[in-house]
Amino acid sequence: MIVGFSNESNEKLGALCRYCKNRLKSVTSAMDKLKFYFAFLLVFTFSSSALTQRIPHTEKYIAPWSCDILITGGTVVTMDSGRRVIENGAVAIKGDKIVAVGPAAVVTKNLTAKRTINARGKVIIPGLINTHTHVPMSLFRGISDDLDLNDWLTRYIFPAEAKNVDEKFVRAGTRLGLAEMIRGGTTTYCDMYYFEDAIADETKKAGVRGVLGETIIKFPVADNKSPEDALAYTEKFIKKWKNDPLIVPAAAPHAPYTLETATLKAIRAQSDRLDSAVVIHVAETKKERDDIFALYGKTPAAYLDSIGFLSNRTIAAHSVWLRPDEVDIYKKHGVGVAHNPTSNMKLASGVAPIPEMLAKDIAVGLGTDGAASNNDLDMWEEIDLAAKLHKLTSNDPKTLPAEMAFEMATIRGARALHLDDLIGSLEIGKRADIAIVDLDSLNQTPYFNIYSALVYTTKATDVRSVIINGRLVMLDRRLLTLNETAIKVDANRYREKIINSLKQ
Length: 504
Ligand SMILES: [Zn+2]
Known about the structure:
Number of domains: 3
Low-confidence stretches: 1-57
Helix content: 40-55%
Bound molecules: zinc ion
CATH superfamily of the largest domain: Metal-dependent hydrolases
Shape: globular
Radius of gyration: 28 Å
CATH architecture of the largest domain: Alpha-Beta Barrel
CATH topology of the largest domain: TIM Barrel
Number of strands: 17
Number of helices: 18
Largest sheet: 9 strands, mixed
């Protein structure tokens, strides 16, 4: 039987003379050989190109391959859809992407790495995602405490901002906040402030990923004197940063109570036109809910829905005073939520209906809010507090288990920022945003369950090394892209200036 020839052809072959038969046989056998070589070539080409793009899942022969950074020997908490946790695992990075995740013995087979990080005894996690902050406000850390939001804002924050915020202030505060976030293993943050273009510049220089929104608010502020000016600034800002590998530019309308309906509609139109994200505070306090209801006859999220503001590019911070029908409105539009347990507790704003949102699989991430109301940018505290706060208010210790709290700081947080195709888990093809965390500090010893250790015992000081977009930004607790000493000197200089400004 000659492969590739039909029976009919074989019969015809029988009718030919011996010479012709032999000629035909040699031709068909040459064709067989060609087919074999072609098939071999296909298999070889496929397997060698696949090596740099797919997990080497098997123990079979793997051709030599290379990567830029190899992290090996640690417990890999992938946060992928199967929630794989790999003991003695490894992650390989090439350029800005993850190219292999799996058992160390498999990933490292025939692998040459330009740089190897030994993570033995440590845990390798997706970088944490802080879904809501105002990074330059780190310079207002501790300016006033133990007040409700209204008093805190009108008596301290707004006057201090009016007298101190300029581009230099924003840059110094951003560097301070970025250094603190990197130290704690945060690799992506979502921001809302003024001079956001300067924030983007500092963030890019530090090598951190940011969804950065320029604040639009109805009264004059440091960089823009009207919502129209702020909208024009935002337009330029979004166009400038649109294709940056680290910066995701956004609009940041402050809140429904600090903007007119027409401005909110214009911001939605701009977001449609530029395909850009919109960051907003929604229903942070009971006062906001009551004021909006008195004005429009609707509660805040229902009001935003009624004017066509919400979309699957919206990132809504707080959402504390949401009714069940408003949770459904979020679900309908695919709104991402930034839950800020520390800030909500400290300002006594209330408890957001997070278990109700999670029951409907809404994308809820965690955020620190600004360091002025937290008073730090430590995501590990948010993870811990989110898990505990909702147990307390539901009177049920099974509410918001540890694994879910960690999910909110990683892959679900990525969903909240509408970036889950790029970040939030350790998977092949995703951006290499990774933190390497100790597992043997006193506060973690002994450890039995990885999610329990990550959620209830790990502190920001346990984070050892951080990689963002394939670039090392902290190695063995040494910051590589920011000058810690200079940052502290700048911050303390601003402390004096802020104290004097509030005396005037
Ligand atoms: Zn906020």
